[in-house]
Each structure stands twice: as structure tokens, then as C-alpha cells.
Amino acid sequence: MKIILTGILLAILTSLPLSAVSLPATDSSMDSAEIKVAILLTPKQRSPYAEIFRQFSKESGIKVTTVARTDAEYKAYLPLWLLEGKNTPDIMYWQASKRLFYYAEKGVLQPITKLWSENHLDENFSHVKSAVTYQGDIYALPFSYYHWGLFYRKSLIEKYGGVPQTWEDFIAQCAAMKKDGIIPIGIGTKNSWPAAAWFDYINLRINGLSFHQQVLTGQISFYDPRLQNVLFEWKKLIDKGFFNKDHNALAWDGVLPKFYRDRIAFTLIGNFAVSKFPKRRVAEIGFMPFPKIKAIPSYEEAPMDVFMIARNTKNLKAAELFIKFMARADIQAQHNEYLGYLPPNKSANVGQDPFTQAGVSLLKQADGMTQYFDRDTLPAFAAKAVPLFAEFINTGNLQEITEKLEQARQEAFLH
User: Fold this and answer.
1) What is the pLDDT of residue 80?
2) Whole-model pTM?
């Protein structure tokens, strides 16, 4: 792996002018500097991060100590690091939009507004700037984003009429599969959050982006007929038994073994799932956008990952140098190619992996993008609403979920 990574790295570096790949000389105060960088790791990501941190250390002379955690662990540690100041890393991975703004509001992040301006980052990041800007200051650097959509088993979809273009086609195809004993839609809701994608996409396809944003900022009652339509369309899938019955017992990737064996046809997930696909299975899997429901513009989910600096860091100069390093087009291209993600830097090359290219095509055609339900709303609302979406897949009870979601909305936004 290291030989492959080094080869790719050299190819990238030799194609760029020296000014694009060299960090400025560090001052004497950083000759023996060390920074701690906290990252959330999903499977197969350790090597890419290790390579990029090794390169930063080689160029800057600054040692990087990695603080790596899995998803659940990371989300438990982050408030301890930031709000309680316990062993706080200098730089931390996090997620754009409301999740970032929550900590910016608490005053525990170091603004990078001056760094952003001095390094002219608007030239390549203006299109994502709003997702890291809170009350006029910039609080993080976007370094990766990825698309969501429906991954499907090619053999099954071809057998049942090809890739569905409309909601009606999708439902009809799922019904035919269900009749033949195939589970149309696989999902794992043990941790609840995958269920929120179904609410997001159905709402975006019926009511559009502006309305969706109003919902996520608590402005719309769940008794509103427009939201009732969303839940009703989702209920159709639930009532017809299209979802796997054991979803509560499975994590997001728990459906994949059945998916590989043609027992499940579709799964709605982000492109991070590709890192889990065995190489021998990749050619058997296709990707499609969430189907159209109404004749309105298409909006997509594209969550963005960022690096932010802790306000209480004692290594600010070194941390800022790391941010500048991670902003570079060559570094973003290299890092995201390894991860199978997309670089926010507009000047960065994009990996040629077919799923990555599918994401490029999807997002180029999108009329707008969201971050994801629990990244675009208040944490207090997400904590109650997301488990309710998972519960809805069990019950299909429209009245009950409406009452509970409306109560959660009022408690989060109106009290």
C-alpha cells in the first residue's frame, strides 16, 4: 500500500510547480513543534490519513500525533475535548453546518477568517464557504465531501426492468421484487441515522430545498399538509414491506452481506459505503440518484467534512500551517482519491473511481445540496427526531410519528 501511495504522490507532485507543493519554512518556534490531530475513522481510512500526515511532517518538520476514534467514540469524545477542555487535540475532524456552528457559538473554536483571507481561499472554496461561516467568521476548512444515493445490485435491477427513473417506477419495481421473495430495500437502523436519509430525500423530491431548510430550522409544523405528504409517501414503502424486518438489529453496514448475495436490491447510503465493498463485488454494484417524485429541481445530500482548530490550542502557528497544507489542491486531490470522496477545492483533480465519478456527475447536475438531517438542524431536535424516523419504519403509524415529531420540534425550537 505504501509503495502505491508513494507512487501516486510522486505523480501528483511532479506535475505541479514547486510553489504548489512546498510549505513555507517554519520559524524557530516550530522547529520541534508537535500537533495532535483527531480524526474519525471508518474502515480502510487509516493508511490514507497516515500518509497525508507523514507528508505534512516531512515538509514542515512538525510532528503529527493522531488521535483516532470510531464514529460513536468520536462523537462521545468531542464534547469532552471542546466543552470540558479534557486533553483537547489541536485540530479536530468535524462536520460542516449546524454541527460546526454549535461549537462556534460556544466560543471553543479558533476562527480562521484571517488565514482564509490571507491565503485567498475564496478562489477555490467560495462555493462551500457558507457551510463553515458563523456570524461573519470562518471556523473550519472543508477537506472532503461525498454524495448519497441508491446503490443497487445490477443483476436484480436488470432482471426487473432496469434503473427506475420515477417514484412510481421505483415502487412498481420494488413490488415485483417483493412478490418474488427479494427484499427491495436494505437498511440498518441500530444507530438510527440511516433512516433520516429517507425523510430528507422524499421531502427534497416533493417540497424542494427551501422548504426542507425551513423544516430543519423548526419553522414548519409536522401537521402541515406538505409534510404529511412526505410521511405518506414513505409510509407506502413501509406498508408494502419493502424494508428488511431486522433493520433495528443492524448497523448501517449490516445489510451488505445480504446485498452482495442478491437478497437485497437497493440500499440508500453515502459513498463512504464503497470502502466496505469487496473488490470482487464492485463491478456488480450500480449507483443511481434518488428517483424523482415531482417535477421540481433536483437537490442532493452531500455531507462535508472539515478540520477545525481548538480555541485553547498552544500550537496555533503549527495548527494554522496544517490547515493551509490541507487546503492545497494537490493534497485534497490525493487524500480524497484514496478515500473515494470529492475534494471541496475547485482546482483539485477528482479520482477516477466509477462511484466517485458518479458523484461528480450527480452533484454537477444538482440544483442545490444539503448536508444531511442531523448536520443541518439543532442537535436537540436531531437527537429526538432521528430515532423517530427509525421507529416509523417499524410501525408505519402516521398519526403517532406526526405527534412525536411535532412535540420534538416544539421542545427544540419553541421552548
Assistant:
1) 96
2) 0.86
